[in-house]
Amino acid sequence: MKALIFAAGLGERMRPLTDRTPKPLLVAGGKPLIVWHLERLASAGIREVVVNVSWLADRFAPALGDGGRWGLRLHYSHEGATPLETGGGMLHALPLLGDAPFLAINGDIWSDHDLASLPRVPAGDAHLVLVDNPAHHPDGDFALDRHQVRASGADRLTFAGIGVYRPALLADWRDVVGGAPGADASPPRFRLAPLLRAAMDRGAVSGEYHRGAWTDVGTPERLAALDAALAGGR
């Protein structure tokens, strides 16, 4: 299995920290956020990782190299000056990811989730990890009905930014996103959420509830809190 790390975002809410450093390269607990992912991916048996890059794209290779220090082989999916959003970024990275199911993880989260426990092949088109709703996102994203993820329902949870996907999820992306802004750009730019909701409607998204640690490192304050928590755990 290969993995994709979403690292192309502009990091606007993290300014001024991201004026010169991409958000996934910001440090918490003594190492960049993305390095925590690389270590966990390597521990899970992943050997090839694609990192999609846009904002300050030239900072990644000097910091991470070819991935050899973690026993990984890194590939960089360059999106240009404008990030392609999650759906467009995943589509753009498919030539590097291949035809088999792959793991994808947001570069701006931190979690102790055991990535080795994820299914290598999802039952449907995707398998998502859900967590309790943080204070800044109280309404959640999706509902978990036993092991099926639904677009709506009671007791909604937050998508953790960790999932396993079949490339087939993107097969009909044009029909799903229609004329959304950016869809007609070259390369196309669109969000992944509409494709996931369409897959949920046909019962093709499984999921799990992660009860452990998880942080969306979206602001300088949350980065500082994570850094303090990790430092305290050493």
Q: Please, could you describe this protein's structure?
A:
It is built from six helices and 13 strands. The chain has helices at residues 33-43, 60-64, 85-97, 173-177, 193-201, 220-232; strands spanning 2-6, 27-28, 31-32, 48-53, 73-78, 102-106, 109-111, 126-131, 143-145, 148-150, 158-165, 205-209, 214-216. The protein has a seven-stranded mixed beta sheet with strand order 5-4-1-6-11-8-12. The radius of gyration is 17 Å and the shape is globular. The mean pLDDT is 95.
Number of strands: 13
First CA to last CA: what distance? 31 Å
Please, how many helices?
Answer: 6
- Weakly predicted, low-confidence segments: none
SSE order: EEEHEHEHEEEEEEHHEEH
Key structural traits:
234 residues, 7-stranded mixed β-sheet, single chain, alpha/beta, two-stranded antiparallel ribbon
How would you briefly describe this protein structure?
The chain is of the alpha/beta class. The chain is built from six helices and 13 strands. A hairpin with a 2-residue loop joins strand 2 (27-28) and strand 3 (31-32).
Please give the structural blueprint:
Elements: E1 2-6, E2 27-28, E3 31-32, H1 33-43, E4 48-53, H2 60-64, E5 73-78, H3 85-97, E6 102-106, E7 109-111, E8 126-131, E9 143-145, E10 148-150, E11 158-165, H4 173-177, H5 193-201, E12 205-209, E13 214-216, H6 220-232
